[in-house]
Structure formats: structure tokens, C-alpha cells
Amino acid sequence: MNYSTTKPGSAGRSNSLILVMIFAVFSIAFMIANTHIKAALDDIKRENVLLRDEIKNVTQALNKSHALNEDLMSKFPRLSEDEISEFKKKGLADPESNIIQDLGSREELMPFKGMFGARPSFYPEVRMSLLNAKWVYLYYDDGTNKGQSLLKYRVANNGMIEWNILDTL
Fold first, then answer.
1. I need a labelling partner for 110 at 20 to 30 A (CA). Which of 2, 70, 151, 162 fits?
2. Spatial distance between the Cα atoms of 131 and 72, rounded to a whole number of angstroms
3. Of all helices (H) and strands (E), which one includes residue 8?
């Protein structure tokens, strides 16, 4: 005796109909999600263009600022002929270059330690300026730490250069 009220084969059609409906719901949900994702991607692309423009503007401003600083620093007095002559008598072959090179080798004068084990250094091409026969200005930046220092130096009779930090910003 069969007490089922469904017709033979109708259960298979019901299951198929349910599967089609589930597929349709997932398809619609996917299309809606895809539309939202495309809109979000378009927003990100527009923001990316704005950020690139902003980076370009900041880079141009920094380059202009560095050029102005370089121009200003080039106008600072350097060593006079008398001072150059005196330092040569003390053993410096090229006093301006020798002083800057000596400072570049003095990592103990760096006011911070290098990041991740890197050795901190001064780099003449970055910003070291021999102001006169007593002082050197320098700017340093390791990507994380930045600063400026004013250093006093003295050239001994044996050509050795002694350094003292006057101030650091």
C-alpha cells in the first residue's frame, strides 16, 4: 500500500525547481555583489589617481624646497684663503673636502642609532655644509629619523679633526 499523495515523478520535478530557484537566487546575489565590487573598484581607481597627483605635487614642492635650500647653502661663506692655508699647514691636503670626509666617517656623532641594524651615516651629498673655520651644519634623514645638527670642529696641528655637537634639532 502506497500512502503517498504525490504523483509518481513529481518529487524529482520539485527538487529540480528548488535547485533552479536556489541557482537563480545565487545568480542574482552574485550580480548584485559584482556590481558593488565594480563600484568599489572604480572608487579605488579614482582615489588612486588623486593620490598619484598629490604625490606628484608634494614631490615637486620638495624638489623646489631642496633646490632653494641648496641655493641658500651655496651662498654661505666657506673657508677663506687664509684658513685654507692654515689648515694645509696642519696637514690637510684639501681642507674643505677633508673636513667633510672626516665628519662622514664619524657615526658616533649621529644622534640616533640606525634602524634594523643599519649603520647610521652622514652623507655629504645629502646635506653637509662647511659654514666656516669652526662650524659645520648637517641635515640627516634615514627614512625614519630626521634632524639637523650644528657641529664645532677643530683641526689639530697633526691634521686630526676634533668634533663637538653644539646643538641638534
1. 70
2. 12
3. none
Q: Which three cell numbers stand for residue 60?
A: 615637486
**Is there a contact between 103 and 109 (Cβ–Cβ < 8 Å)?**
yes
pLDDT one digit per residue (tens) for the chain, 169 residues: 555 555 555 666 778 888 888 888 888 888 888 888 888 899 999 999 998 988 888 888 877 776 776 666 666 657 888 999 999 999 999 998 899 888 878 877 777 766 666 655 665 555 678 888 899 888 777 667 777 888 999 999 999 999 998 988 8
Q: Which residues contact 130 (CB under 8 A, 6 or more apart)?
A: 78, 79, 96, 99, 100, 136
DSSP 153: E
Cα separation of 45 and 153, whole Å?
A: 53
Does residue 159 come out as left (phi exceeding 0), alpha (psi in the -120 to 50 range) or beta?
left
Please tell me the pTM assigned to this model.
0.53
For residues 164 and 151, what is the distance between their CA atoms, to the nearest angstrom? 6
